[in-house]
Design a protein that fits this description.
Strand content: under 5%
Distance between the termini: 37 Å
Number of domains: 1
Pfam family, one: Ferritin
Number of strands: 0
GO molecular function: ferric iron binding
CATH architecture: Up-down Bundle
CATH superfamily: Ferritin, core subunit, four-helix bundle
Oligomer: single chain
Protein name: Ferritin/DPS domain-containing protein
Largest sheet: none
Organism: Timema tahoe
Radius of gyration: 21 Å
InterPro entries: Ferritin-like, Ferritin-like_SF, Ferritin_DPS_dom
């Protein structure tokens, strides 16, 4: 059986390699993405709290926003761990903000809050697609699909 394993390893192409440092080229964009996720997590938490303490009957929205807040927080923690495992360093000492992030809207109503939640999700998806696209073109030979 050992001979068969050695034969398989000998037949592997010599250009096949793992690049654990592929994330270093986009660290600044990853910092912005992670900080956006954390910021939006707190926005969802605030929106959830608004519906839990209001007199309106919207328990579904309160649960939805709480679930989204927890999901974004867990995604941010996962990305921080992923980058740290590969030797990357994220610097959160400098505040990063987008023009969209500077506008914190409070409870204007159910439809407006749902619209705002959809806008936040669109922004995060655009950032993720931008990072994924940049990785795909910069790391053409050693692209790691686990990054996002």
């Amino acid at each position: 059986m050992e001979g068969a394993d050695n034969k398989v390893f000998q037949e592997l192409p010599q250009t096949c390699r793992a690049d654990p440092n592929a994330v270093h080229g986009i660290t600044s964009k990853m910092e912005l993405f992670v900080s956006s996720q954390i910021f939006k997590s707190f926005q969802y938490l605030l929106m959830s709290f608004t519906y839990s303490s209001s007199t309106e009957e919207c328990p579904g929205l309160q649960k939805l926003f709480k679930k989204q807040s927890n999901s974004l927080w867990n995604n941010a923690v996962h990305l921080i761990q992923f980058i740290s495992q590969r030797g990357g360093i994220l610097n959160f000492s400098e505040p990063t903000s987008n023009k969209e992030d500077d506008l914190i809207r409070l409870n204007f109503g159910e439809l407006e809050d749902l619209s705002h939640a959809l806008d936040m999700e669109k922004t995060l998806e655009r950032q993720a697609i931008c990072i994924h696209t940049e990785l795909a073109k910069c790391q053409s030979g050693s692209f790691n699909s686990e990054v996002l």
